[in-house]
Design a protein that fits this description.
The complex is a heterodimer. Chain A is an alpha/beta fold. Chain A has 14 helices and eight strands. In chain A, strand 7, helix 8 and strand 8 form a beta-alpha-beta unit. Chain A is globular. Chain B folds into two domains: 140 residues, NAD(P)-binding Rossmann-like Domain (Rossmann fold, 3-Layer(aba) Sandwich); 140 residues, Dihydrodipicolinate Reductase, domain 2. In chain B, 41% of the residues lie in helices and 24% in strands. Chain B contains ten helices and eleven strands. In chain B, the strands form two sheets. Chain B has a six-stranded parallel beta sheet with strand order 3-2-1-4-5-6, sandwiched between helices. Classes of the chains: A alpha/beta, B alpha/beta.
Chain lengths: 333, 294
């Protein structure tokens, strides 16, 4: 077991999906300040789909990227600010702005097979003195050797960490263990894990990652991420304390911070069944609310949409396919 | 017949070659490259097309060549553009160099018939700008956003290393050619096997409420115009109007001339290039016919 485990909280990024990107900069600053007080090592803040994600496709954010970063940056005293960027959605200019506004960590995310679109973005972040975490999303969709090949690319471009990201909350603990082991064996850089709770396994998956040697893991307060959410940061901290793995986080204070997201928690209209199907069918977690809306608009069952999306092997970012599938199902009657 | 040449015998140049050979209005006089035994040059030679491995020089020397397709890369085109201009040849630029104005044949070809250098924006631009323009002629557009999803296998190293170039150039094309007040573009690579056909979703925000039927008619008419030069261009979800938002989805299947049919994203740019050249051929012939004693 590690001597210290780095925990990154993504309430203010992954959690943006759960509020359809409507946190205000002030709300973000309040939550960020509480996490800073609790001693969280790093927190991620931005639109749910990262810098430049505010769009019709993914939903418009309540404020521009800049306003969020300024607000959060201004209250942090020891917690490092991370931003997410998906090449193809955000651009290098966005990363430059984030660096100017105090972001210390750049998380550059691609689909698990497409790491080579991130070379320039990783390079720029390194030149700007940022720490880089490469994010291989939808990791369950590629065999381990393909994942490792893509992880090596990210490492070669300069990533300090490479993450296995279980975007669909599909991966079971033994599979997480195998993937993290494979990354630890293949890479010189450090390794991370980001999970989703669609099958109720986020904490178990994260624990499996830690046992397999992960150097950093993600959580969100009350598990406030897309779909079924992430591993709840406060629960994770408690579990790690039971294992005597230090995280630098004060348990009571992070529990207090978690209370701040309570008012934002609302069950999506389609309820937990659709969440379960995300994990079961292997569909990107942020599709949940978009699917609930499309199901209502076209009068079809959200579960049918999600199963069909899984069958089509849709990847992260393809929210437009929800409309395509719902329209087709409605036409078929 | 309008005499043309192609520089760059890679995948795009080769696909373009097959399309030019099928055109009743164009005569391919040369395929130029820089690597003597490259596959592309060998393939062209086997078809009886004059080839050169000495780059643009021999193309410049042939006076009867009127139009030159540049399928190399942004940097080489920056060098080629002034040479072609000096030689009085029209350049159709398939690279991201954008020396000349953006052209989408179904939308704004008429404005640039006398330009000596035209640029084809991006594959995503060729696929989506016609729809943006079709919606925009019904009601002014405050905003247009497109999502292009292409098969991973159809994105070459150039696209992959410069993915920002795609999003930024396409967004500008939505504004400049599509006439949206503001544009945004997103690109997604999907590795599914068998490879998916290029898919595009076009979101338009109109400045005033408008009639779904009127928009649908305008879009359907535009789709037919694009099909003139891109046969595999299809409406997948007709324009759906909700408040001020119009959502349309199209797919582009390639003709399979040289590149596989799933790479509609590559096909649409070679098809657009031929579309531009054929319109230039008509224009040049018409001009000759009306010019007195020419």
């Amino acid at each position: 077991m590690p001597e210290f485990l780095r925990v990154v909280d993504t309430t203010l990024r992954d959690g943006m999906h759960s509020v359809t990107h409507q946190f205000s900069p002030e709300q973000m600053a309040t939550i960020a300040a509480a996490m800073d007080a609790a001693g969280i090592d790093t927190l991620e803040a931005s639109h749910g789909d990262g810098l430049g994600g505010s769009s019709i496709q993914y939903g418009r954010a309540a404020a521009p990227d800049r306003a969020y970063l300024e607000a959060v940056s201004s209250v942090l005293t020891r917690t490092k600010l991370a931003v997410l960027l998906l090449p193809g959605i955000g651009v290098k200019d966005d990363l430059d702005v984030a660096a100017d506004l105090g972001a210390k960590v750049a998380r550059i995310a691609t689909h698990v097979t497409e790491a080579d679109i991130a070379e320039q973005h990783i390079g720029l972040a390194k030149r700007r003195g940022m720490e880089v975490m490469g994010f291989l999303m939808m990791v369950h969709m590629a065999p381990i050797d393909v994942m490792v090949h893509n992880a090596r690319l990210m490492e070669a471009y300069g990533a300090d960490y490479v993450y296995a990201v279980d975007s669909a909350g599909y991966t079971l603990p033994p599979e997480v263990r195998d993937r993290v082991h494979a990354l630890k064996d293949a890479l010189d850089c450090r390794v991370g894990f980001h999970g989703h709770n669609n099958l109720g396994l986020a904490i178990g998956d994260t624990l499996a990652a830690v046992e397999a040697g992960a150097d950093v893991v993600d959580g969100s307060l009350r598990g406030f991420g897309a779909g079924g959410g992430n591993a709840a940061t406060e629960t994770l901290v408690a579990v790690l304390q039971r294992l005597a793995i230090p995280t630098g986080v004060d348990l009571y204070k992070i529990m207090d911070a978690a209370k701040l997201v309570e008012p934002f928690k609302a069950q999506p209209k389609q309820g937990p069944d659709a969440t379960l199907i995300l994990g079961y069918a292997g569909v990107y977690s942020s599709f949940l609310l978009h699917t609930a809306r499309a199901a209502e608009r076209f009068g079809v069952d959200a579960r049918d949409i999600l199963v069909e999306l899984g069958r089509r092997r849709v990847v992260g970012g393809q929210e437009d396919m929800i409309i395509d599938v719902a329209y087709e199902l409605a036409q078929a009657g | 017949m309008l005499k043309v040449a192609i520089i760059g015998p890679g995948n795009i140049g080769t696909d373009l070659m097959y399309k030019v050979l099928r055109s009743p209005k164009l005569e391919l006089c040369m395929l130029a490259g820089i690597i003597p035994d490259s596959e592309g040059l060998k393939r062209a030679a086997a078809l009886g097309i004059p080839t050169t491995a000495q780059g643009i020089g021999p193309v410049l020397d042939q006076e009867e060549i009127r139009v030159v397709f540049d399928a190399t890369g942004a940097r080489p085109h920056l060098a080629h553009a002034p040479l072609l201009k000096e030689a009085g040849k029209i350049a159709i630029d398939l690279t991201p160099a954008a020396v000349g104005p953006y052209v989408v044949p179904a939308v704004n070809m008429g404005e640039h018939l006398d330009s000596l250098n035209v640029n084809l924006v991006t594959c995503g631009g060729q696929a989506t700008i016609p729809i943006v323009s079709a919606v925009g002629r019904v009601a002014p557009l405050a905003y247009a956003e497109i999502v292009a999803t292409i098969a991973s296998k159809s994105a070459g190293p150039g696209t992959r290393q410069n993915i920002d170039e795609f999003t930024q150039t396409t967004a500008r094309g939505l504004e400049v050619v599509g006439k949206a007040e503001k544009g945004k573009a997103i690109i997604i690579l999907n590795p599914a096997e068998p490879p998916i056909v290029m898919r595009n979703t076009i979101y338009c925000e109109v400045e005033r409420p408008c009639d779904e039927q009127e928009i649908r008619a305008s879009v359907e008419e535009m789709v037919e115009q694009v099909q003139d030069y891109v046969p595999g261009y299809r409406l997948r979800v007709p324009p759906l109007v909700k408040g001020n938002l119009v959502t349309t989805m199209i797919e582009v299947e390639g003709a399979g001339d040289f590149l596989p049919t799933y790479s509609g994203n590559l096909d649409i740019i070679t098809a657009a290039a031929v579309g531009v050249a054929e319109r230039l051929a008509d224009h040049i012939i018409n001009r000759r016919e009306v010019a007195p004693d020419a």
